[in-house]
Write a structure and sequence with these properties.
Layout (H helix, E strand, L loop, with lengths): L3 H4 L2 H8 L9 H25 L8 H14 L12 H19 L6 H16 L28 E4 L2 E4 L23 H15 L14 H11 L5 E7 L6 H10 L2 E4 L2 E3 L5 E7 L1
Parallel strand pairs: 3-6
Antiparallel strand pairs: 1-2, 4-5
Helix pairs in contact: 3-5, 3-6, 4-5, 7-8
Length: 279
Amino acid sequence: YLEPHQLGWRPSLESWLNELPTPLAVDEHQDYIRTMFEWLLDPLLKFVRLSLRLFVPTSSVHLARTVMNLFDCLLDPWRREGAPSSAQTTAHLEAVFAFSVVWGVGGQLIGADRGKFDEFLRACLTGTHETVEKPKAVKFSKSAIPPERGSCYDFVFHNGQWVNWVDLIEHIEIPADAKPTSIIVPTVETVRQLFFLRQHLEHKQPLLFVGPTGTGKSAIVDSELLKLPKDRYLPNSLTFSARTTAAQTQQIILSKLDRRRKGVFGPPMGKQCVVFVDD
């Protein structure tokens, strides 16, 4: 057994690099991704640990793994036919990396500290930071950096380009007989939460939403789970309270699953079970 700070995030990175999609599983692209992580991750984690405040205390290893999970979710263009060319790949990987560190490392920061993180990250990406030197092997073109007309938190790398979250807000028609409690008005925050929820669900990655009470986290997740295709997903929601026991939790989860053989349970064949814990 090793303490997380002794193990560090590098073994996790090496394991993840071995699971990249086939077009990226070549030394050229693996080395470039590794170089970007080696260059930026430690300075960002140190800056967050010493100078900023997280909403929930989280180890550096966990933050690094969150970056990898999000990075992995955004590699779909290389999982399909017609993957980006080698020339396009470098620029796209840079942008995906920038987006992943913004939300993987900086997504948990309290609102007041996000501006400091934005300034620090931009200085690193542009090579103007005093102490974080940009490796010669890393190009990082201007198109791979979130636009300067807003914070790095204002943009998402979507379909090969940077898009403002505001532009992804959909217009909805609210039925005249709708109950006020059932209405979710799309905002930048709901668009962000739904984006990350859908990406992680589609790629079977675990996800934890944290934030102040009463901001709609549970309502948004519940609403999205109800919309999942019934032929592919089996949602299972449970609420935790101070009186919830381990036995109750196990019973609620197993009650929705089929018994396949002794000691082995699972959703009906062809379906994925999504367990949502509302704490």
